[in-house]
Amino acid sequence: MTAQTTHPPMARTPRAWKKDIERFALLGAWAVLIAIFAVAVPDTFLTWRTFSSMFGSQAVLVVLALAVLVPLTAGDFDLSAANVLVFSAMLIAVTNVQLGLPIGLSIVLAIGIGALIGAVNAFFILFFRIHSLIITLGVGTFLQGLTLWMSQSRTISGISMDLVEVVVIQRLFGIPLAFYYGLALALIMWWVLEYTIAGRKLLFVGRGREVARLNGVKVDRVRVMSLVTSSTLAAIAGVLYAGMTGSADPNSGSGLLLPAFAAAFLGATTLYPGRFNPLGTLLSVYFLITGITGLTMLGADAFVQSLFYGGALVVAVSLSQLVRGRQPQSFG
Amino acid sequence: MTVKPLASPGTGPHDADILRMSQIRMKFGSVEVLRDVNLTLRRKEIVGLLGANGSGKSTLIKVLAGFNSPQPGSVVRLWGEDLPLPLNAARIRQMGVAFVHQHLALIPSLSVVDNMLISDTSRRPYGIKWRAERRKIAALMAEFDLDIDPDAMVETLSPVERAFVAIVRAFAELRRSDAGRAGEGILVLDEPTPFLSVADVEKLFTVLRNIRSTGASVIIVTHDIDEVLALTDRVAVMRDGRLAAMMKTKDTSRQQILDTIVGRAIAAYVRAPRPAPTKRNVTIEALTGGRCKGFDADLKAGEILGVTGLIGSGFADVPYLLFGAMQGSGHIKIGDTYLDAENLPPATAHAAGIALLPGDRMGQGGVGSLSVTENATFLALPRMRRGPGLSHGMMRRATAGLIADHDVRPANPDADLGNLSGGNQQKVLLGKWLAEAPKLLCLDEPTQGVDYGARQQIFAALDHAAAQGMSILVASTDHEQLAQLCDRVVVFWRGRPVMTLAGKDVEKDRIARVCLGSGLPDTETPHQTEVFA
Questions:
Q1: Which of A52, B67, B313, B451 could form a disulfide with B53 if both were Cys (CB 3.0 to 4.6 A apart)?
Q2: Are residues B350 and B288 in the same domain?
Q3: Cβ atoms B300, B467 nearer than 8 A
Q4: Is residue A11 assigned to a domain?
Q5: Contact across the interface for B366 and A195, Cβ inside 8 Å
Q6: Are residues B54 and B156 in the same domain?
Q7: Domain span holding position A282
Q8: Is residue A10 in some structural domain?
Q9: Which of the pair, B253 or B436, is modelled with greater confidence?
Q10: What per-residue confidence (pLDDT) applies to A129?
Q11: Closest CA to B35 of B240, B260, B237
Q12: How confident is the model at residue B266 (pLDDT cuts 50, 70, 90)?
């Protein structure tokens, strides 16, 4: 559907076909993957429960991947995103469980502090003109320390069930609400990037800062907004993370950083090839979890997760490069 | 000698030929880009390779460099040896063909020595002896009367010095090659001059003549007919993938070469006479920044003002200062708006009705990896809204209109801007700004790397915009272009505007002479300026 809105019908040249193949290859690969597992483990894989659990469980990763996608489009890396996620989840746990704040206030606080962290990232990157990779790496590591300090390195459980209720317990069509939050966010971001001036400015800033500046874009402002958005979304991912289990674990969430980047890059090979795009990212997350779920059901160990995330990313991006005749890529 | 008919181009085989490319055919997909090209090069000879954009001259050079593989049947004979196709890039270099590409392939943040040694693969069993290398490079520079410090960072060198480093590096490569031992070699230069001033081009030519006198041969690809006439022994002209003519330089003329390049007679664009503009539109006061010091000007509505001078004389900074693209000071009055050039953000300049078409098209003007539509509509997005969001249909229709108005080829709004030729990129970017109907349009080298036909179309578009009341300021070192386009031309000397030419003084040779410092009022002559500075 998205393809038709941007490309009205025109003569289908061979090149257009090739482009369409590239655009929908991942969707096809996903279908093939589902078909394979459906044949291999029909009883366990091909059930609504498996799918609803796959859809529900990945909402945190979807939101985190969408978070890092914003600065990636503007040409910046946000390596602090996963640490913001854990910090925000832990902040909710500490304020709600230990300090007894109402859950609503805890959430607002966590998201607000998320936005503030984004502003801190932006300040160091833009005021001192330091590469985003360095600052967000530092800020992320610093946050990790804060998280461990705040929690005494312990998992804190007992977060208000109200949060858990609206994240995983309530379901629509049998799928936890968390899935729909991720879906809604992806759709909103798709619309913002494709159909608003702010989205176009973000893209131009990422592809050519000097070009954007000489076309009257306030480049620094756009970069600040992208970094604040990223951290805010990462904090929201943290809220979902806390709501998944009703607890906050100071360690495991930081492992989500690489899968989030993997999904963003894999997403850039599909639907709008060569461009970071929210719908492609959404598709990638579910493609990856389908493979992992299926392989686990076939009896694979936990390490299959990393194997599949890493392997699928490298293979998919390489295949997409073959289709485009190995042209150097400029993502954004 | 006259232009040879297409059937028998070239001056035929010759005993002194060191390179003979015959029946070169080449296809990109189903498009024939080279059709039976024959080119020869002799010992101690400089050949100029000319042609419009897309005529196949770069493709031919890439065949020789081993980047493009020609069709079977093509023959490349080098020093009497038929080479297997496609050519092996490393072997070609080893045999003594060295290339200097337009972008010079130097790393700015490294020193001259570092850059010179990149291509030097001779064995050094005891490691690099830096002092000896520096001495060797200094000696090589001295051979060509060049005073370039081997330890200088390339980024601190002037553009012409960078070109020298790249050329001397290529020459050193020739010397190390098989042919170099016999004093021979072929140096291929792909458009080395567009960023150089007239004086620097002359220096460059001296170096190339010195290289020829060592026994080597040079092929120089260029747009500039005058350069070819000044430098070369023979001229090869490409047109539509064929070698249209191979002529002896001393037997030909500017007009003949021009006619051969264009094939059909393209009339140089001539402005329609119109009444002198009178309504004051833009006032610039004490504009200072970069190398430009104290530029004042009044631009009438509908007036085209040129600023020129030698490279580094400050005129090139004027468009960027006016748009706030560069830090500076001074005052600008445009319509009823006063702007302070100090801390002027480009967004404010844009809002006040100033536009800037920068010289670096793909670095500053547009994004090569985005489509023509995305680039062309970027400024117009506020007008492309339907309801809360942008309408992609409106964006495409606006772009289709721009493509038709400015004859952009290919006429495909979805093509990536970077895949268009320089001239077509410029038409898209110019069209984008013209659609904003600015009060003042500033351009920096608007036709650099733009072929002859597209250049005339750009002139026509600018003139049309001026006729509608737009003021236009053009910074350029292309005197012919300024003469064709401008009502008045301000010439800069060492940062200051020293003379304004108007009326019939706006003429190519007159501008060129003033740029070089002749005919300036007494107190402003170069010598005096220096004394009182």
A1: B451
A2: yes
A3: no
A4: no
A5: no
A6: yes
A7: 24-322
A8: no
A9: B436
A10: 92
A11: B240
A12: low
Largest CA distance in chain B: 75
Pick the closest to residue A253 from A63, A109, A70, A42 (CA basis).
A63
Instruction: Verify that B458 and B486 share a domain, yes or no.
Output: yes
Confidence (pLDDT) at A2: 37
Rg (CA), chain B: 25
Record: contact B390-A195, CB cut-off 8 A: yes
Task: For residue A102, give the CATH number of its domain.
Answer: 1.10.3470
Contact A207/B at CB under 8 A: yes
| In the block, residue with structure tokens 């952009």 | B408
Q: What per-residue confidence (pLDDT) applies to A183?
A: 95
Does B105 have pLDDT greater than 90?
no
Q: How many domains does chain A have?
A: 1
Cβ-based contacts of A330 with chain B (< 8 Å): 369
A130 at interface of B, judged by CB pairs closer than 8 A: no
Asked whether residue B59 is assigned to any structural domain, the reply reads: yes
d(CA A150, CA B251): 87
Candidates A196, A215, A330; nearest CB to B379: A215
Tell whether A14 is covered by a domain. no
Cα B77 to Cα B42: distance, rounded to the nearest angstrom: 12
List all residues 6 or more positions away from B228 whose beta carbon is below 8 Å from its beta carbon: B48, B50, B220, B222, B235, B249, B257
The answer, yes or no, to whether residue A232 has pLDDT greater than 80, is: yes
The answer to whether B382 contacts A197, with C-beta atoms less than 8 Å apart, is yes
Contacts of A196 in chain B (CB under 8 A): 388-390
CATH number at residue B255: 3.40.50.300
Please judge whether B346 and A216 are an interchain contact, meaning their C-beta atoms are less than 8 angstroms apart.
yes
The pLDDT confidence band at residue A17, using thresholds 50, 70 and 90, is: confident
ipTM tops the 0.85 cut: no
B6 belongs to a structural domain: no
Residue A317 lies in a domain: yes
Whole-angstrom distance between the N-terminal and C-terminal Cα of chain A?
22
Contact B351 A216 (CB under 8 A): yes
B92 and B168: one domain?
A: yes
Answer yes or no: do B345 and A218 touch at CB < 8 A.
Answer: yes
Residue B519 has pLDDT above 70, yes or no: no
**B363/A217 touch (CB, cutoff 8 Å), yes or no:** no
Highest mean pLDDT among A185-189, B12-16, B441-445, B511-515: A185-189
Q: Does B323 touch chain A (CB under 8 A)?
A: yes
Residues B76 and B218 in one domain: yes
Contacts for A155 with CB less than 8 Å, ≥ 6 apart? A247, A248, A249, A250
Q: Considering only alpha carbons, which residue of chain B is nearest residue A220?
A: B345
What's residue B290's pLDDT? 83
- The answer to pTM > 0.80 is no
The answer to whether the Cβ–Cβ distance between A207 and B390 falls below 8 Å is no
Same domain, B126 and B194: yes
Is B364 within 8 Å of A200 when comparing Cβ atoms?
A: no
A190 touches chain B (CB under 8 A): no
- Residue A1 reports pLDDT greater than 60: no
**Is A204 at the interface with chain B, CB within 8 A?**
yes
Share of chain B above pLDDT 70, in %: 88
Residue with the two structure tokens 């490294």: B110
Which region among B178-182, B236-240, B281-285, B401-405 has the lowest average model confidence (pLDDT)?
B178-182
- One domain, residues B185 and B77: yes
- Check residue B111 and report its DSSP letter: B
Could you tell me which chain B residue has the CA closest to the CA of A2? B392
The domain in which residue B98 lies consists of 17-262
The residue of chain A nearest to residue B375, with distances taken between CA atoms, is A204
* pLDDT at position A4 over 50: no
Distance from CA of A72 to the nearest CA of B (A): 16
Domain count, chain B: 2
Angle in degrees, CA B456, B459, B464, rounded to 5:
125
3-state secondary structure of A12: coil
The DSSP secondary-structure symbol of B324 reads T
pLDDT for the residue numbered A324:
64
